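BUG: 3D viewer hangs when loading the predicted structure for this chain

Environment: internal workstation, default settings.
Expected: structure renders.
Actual: progress bar stalls at 90%.

Input used:
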Amino acid sequence: MATYYVNQLGAGSQNGTSLGNAWSVANLNAPSSYTAGDTIILNGTISTQVTIQRSGTAGNPITLLFAAGAKVSAAKWDNNGAILIYGNQSYITIDGGATGTIGGPNGNASFVNGYIECTANGTGLTNSVECVGILANEAKHFIVQNLAIYNLYVRTGTTDQIPSVPYGVAGIACFDNNGNGQSNLTFSNLLIHDTEIGIFTDYGVGGSNYTANQVTVYNCNWGGGTADRGAGATLSGLVVHDCWFYNFTNWNDTVGNQYHHNGWYSYAESGGTLTNPTYYKNKL
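Structure tokens produced before the viewer hung:
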């Protein structure tokens, strides 16, 4: 198990072994030589996409950790994510390093450490585009925790139709594009605001064990959502608890009525089966 340091441009010998010899983001995205059990620490301001292209193993995840004050920040991101987890990766943890509880009814934003943001995307701003904070496809044993995601799309009007319906802007998006059954997705201690959807997931055949806990999402259309990928899709073990979703009026719509507000919207509208979803101790 090793620890590697990353900043935007790299430093020193760029072998990643210390902050003074940090990998650049380009080194990390190459991909570099990290493997199961390793920790990758993001430092400073990261202004280009970060990718993880390898899997961990049970008990030895690959961890992407935000150092004190680290952020992934740009005027806009696109729908491939500020952080992209390549398809079919397993045992990966993204940890924002919050120093206390930042999400849920008892969350406190003063404990935020690492975060992802857009600085100029939304109604009347320089950019008005679809945007995703973290994108993972066909993920298994994937954890996002202790992280804040801000201002992916600051919507102040009621007629702008960006993003596209229904998942164009999401703090976190996990898609089962090939219907292989994502499993063991955990979203914990998160603070997300100004986005269409806080967390969006879908499921294929054999989907299981999706959990969201101590998550706050506001200035949103949906706090979260879970959808069937198609006929034959199945999901068991969806649990949403101790979350807080509020302030939906930013996503009111006077053209086309395409935005319907939800705390967490779980559905099986394409022939799939969602079994016994569980919600408790949530607040709207």
